[in-house]
Amino acid sequence: MASSRRLRALITNDDGIDSPGLLALATGARDAGFDVVVAAPHVDASGVGGSVLAVRDGKRVRVHSRELPDLPDVPAFAVEGHPAFIVHSAGRGWLDPEPDVVLSGINIGANLGHAVLHSGTIGAALAASLHGWRGLAVSLGIPLVEPERPHWESALAVLPDVLDVLLAAPDGTVLSLNVPDLPVRELGELREARLAHWGSVRSRVDHVSGDDGDLLHTHEAELTGDPEPGTDTALLAAGHPTLTELQSVTDRPGLLDGGTLSRRAS
């Protein structure tokens, strides 16, 4: 990773500044030779996607300096804003120098399928691409019942090879890495994966009425059945770390060309 020694990495997440996954990723980036700065939401911001919402006082957003365990020399900030807001702030004058790459995670739970749209971890990496930076979202496939000690070290074991891929890719490239929550010795080989139709978890939302008024009550459950072969969901379930290149919002030309609307309507 000698080439990374001249590069600055912004480490963020959506689980909040106190997440052990954030500390693990910052440590891994430092050990890879990056000049590291950490900026993450002051509270859990899971599921916010690409939101740039922040807690504002007029035009001001509060930032709190923090010292991370075992990383006393790494600048760290708890920001009262969502992950994509933090990334955009870094590219709009806050950080000097600006980051060269944004590393987001390590998320508590996999980010799989087209449901990655809703992930704040993914949203931060995609926001990086809007500034021409490379972005990497790292997630650990922890089940709904979180284990006492997740295998953060397994994600870090895969990280160097993935950083090589990221740094060799064009500016603006965004990658999503999912790693099974298994000991390092039990990991399969790193595999490129396409997105599943949804993911590994789906929510059911019920309208509940009671003494406290009307509520929307959410239940999360892991999907049953065999996942589609070759997808990120299937490969992760088989013990493989998966790597997927993602694209930000783009346009598709030809809407009014040659009767496209008529064909789609039919």
UniProtKB/TrEMBL annotation:
Question: Do the record's keywords include Hydrolase?
Answer: yes
Pfam families the record matches:
SurE
Reactions catalysed = a ribonucleoside 5'-phosphate + H2O = a ribonucleoside + phosphate
Q: Which E.C. number(s) belong to this protein?
A: 3.1.3.5
Q: Which GO terms describe its molecular function?
A: 5'-nucleotidase activity; metal ion binding
Domain named Survival protein SurE-like phosphatase/nucleotidase: residues: 10-196
- Coiled coil regions in record: none
Q: Which UniProt keywords apply?
A: Hydrolase, Metal-binding
What the entry lists under InterPro entries is as follows: SurE (IPR030048), SurE-like_Pase/nucleotidase (IPR002828), SurE-like_sf (IPR036523)
| Enzyme class, broadest EC rank | hydrolase
Superkingdom: Bacteria
Q: What PANTHER family does the record point to? A: 5'-NUCLEOTIDASE SURE (PTHR30457), PHOSPHATASE, PUTATIVE (AFU_ORTHOLOGUE AFUA_4G01070)-RELATED (PTHR30457:SF0)
- Please state which protein family the record places this protein in: Belongs to the SurE nucleotidase family.
What is the recorded name of this protein?
Answer: 5'-nucleotidase
Annotated organism of origin: Pseudonocardia cypriaca
